[in-house]
């Protein structure tokens, strides 16, 4: 198997085999990383620390090293993933840090803005090859999600994933994790989410045991939709605002009246409790 011993792939493959999902929670600072690790250890759950490129660009090597230490020294398996790396400068930063020994476990090389699959492959492949040399697994997006998140470009012309093209696409890029576009979108859902479960099932039958699937665009989703997506083959679930917003709110309120460490402690616990809820919902609690 390619990239033997890769932490992200090991976590996702076990989840896929045993039919549960893995919380990949966006962390914007050290407090949230600590909150996620606490939640994972309490629940005995594997997890993924998700960083956006804007957070990597802010904290660079020292912050990434902190995240790796916090994740890898935990008593349960936790990987560190770079989400939505699109800009060459962010990819260069992540890969040059890896070449200096500060390596993400996985990165998403997001060339979904490309006009065609072929163009997406041409953009992604050199990064995939360079990442693989450092032992980093790469996630790619086939099709295109609408919307936007922290520091990411805003997309308004979504394209659904065509399962018939997925195997060629994954071979072409050389990537090992797939983020499909099934009607999911980044940010707020204007209409209730209408996910194409048939696309997921099709991808599951093609890729089970080979390429783990990652669900993006999970703001505001009802619990039963998370569960349905896991049943239909998703093993990595990216979560952003669910944890971020209550954490930021609690911190802002706490700082009005409490000491800084007290306010941070309370906000960290709010973040951790959101993470724990998802670990239980996704079925990963007790699996580590
Ligand atoms: Zn995403």
Structure overview:
Helix content is 51%, strand content 16%. The chain contains ten helices and ten strands. The protein is globular. It starts with 6 loop residues before the first helix and ends in a 6-residue tail after the last helix. The relative contact order is 0.17. Strands 7-5-4-3-2-1-10-9 form an eight-stranded parallel β-sheet, with helices on both faces. By secondary structure, it is of the alpha/beta class. It has a single domain, classed as TIM Barrel, CATH 3.20.20. It binds zinc ion (ZN).
Spell out the key features of this protein.
single chain; 288 residues; alpha/beta; TIM Barrel; two-stranded parallel sheet; 10 helices; 10 strands; globular; binds zinc ion
Short description:
Helix content is 51%, strand content 16%. It is built from 10 helices and 10 strands.
The total count of helices amounts to 10
* Total domain count: 1
The fold-level CATH name is TIM Barrel
So, CATH architecture?
Answer: Alpha-Beta Barrel
- Distinct ligands, ions and cofactors found in the model: zinc ion
pLDDT averaged over residues: 95
User: Structural class of the secondary elements?
Assistant: alpha/beta
Coarse shape: globular
The Cα radius of gyration reads: 18 Å
Strands of the largest sheet, in order across it?
A: 7-5-4-3-2-1-10-9
Task: State the order of secondary-structure elements, H for helix, E for strand.
Answer: HEHEHEHEHEEHEEHEHEHH
């Amino acid at each position: 198997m390619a990239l033997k011993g890769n932490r992200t792939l090991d976590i996702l493959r076990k989840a896929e085999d045993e039919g549960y999902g893995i919380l990949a929670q966006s962390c914007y600072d050290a407090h949230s990383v600590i909150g996620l690790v606490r939640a994972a250890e309490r629940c005995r759950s594997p997890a993924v620390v998700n960083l956006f490129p804007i957070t990597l660009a802010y904290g660079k090597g020292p912050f990434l090293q902190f995240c790796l230490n916090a994740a890898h020294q935990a008593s349960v398996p936790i990987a560190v993933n770079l989400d939505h790396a699109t800009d060459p400068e962010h990819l260069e930063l992540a890969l040059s840090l890896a070449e200096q020994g500060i390596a993400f476990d996985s990165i998403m090389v997001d060339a979904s803005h490309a006009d065609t699959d072929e163009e997406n492959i041409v953009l992604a492949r050199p990064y995939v090859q360079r990442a693989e040399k450092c032992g980093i697994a790469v996630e790619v997006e086939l099709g295109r999600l609408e919307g936007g998140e922290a520091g990411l470009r805003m997309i308004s012309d979504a394209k659904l994933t065509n399962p018939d093209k997925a195997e060629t696409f994954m071979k072409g890029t050389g990537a090992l994790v797939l983020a499909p576009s099934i009607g999911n979108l980044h940010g707020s859902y204007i209409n209730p989410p209408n996910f194409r479960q048939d696309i997921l099932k099709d991808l599951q039958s093609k890729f089970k045991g080979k390429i783990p699937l990652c669900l993006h665009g999970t703001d505001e989703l009802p619990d039963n939709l998370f569960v349905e997506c896991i049943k239909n083959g998703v093993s990595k679930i990216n979560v952003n605002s669910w944890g971020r917003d209550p954490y930021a709110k609690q911190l802002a309120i706490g700082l009005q009246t409490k000491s800084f460490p007290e306010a941070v402690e309370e906000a960290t616990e709010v973040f951790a409790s959101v993470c724990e809820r998802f670990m239980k919902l996704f079925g990963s609690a007790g699996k580590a």
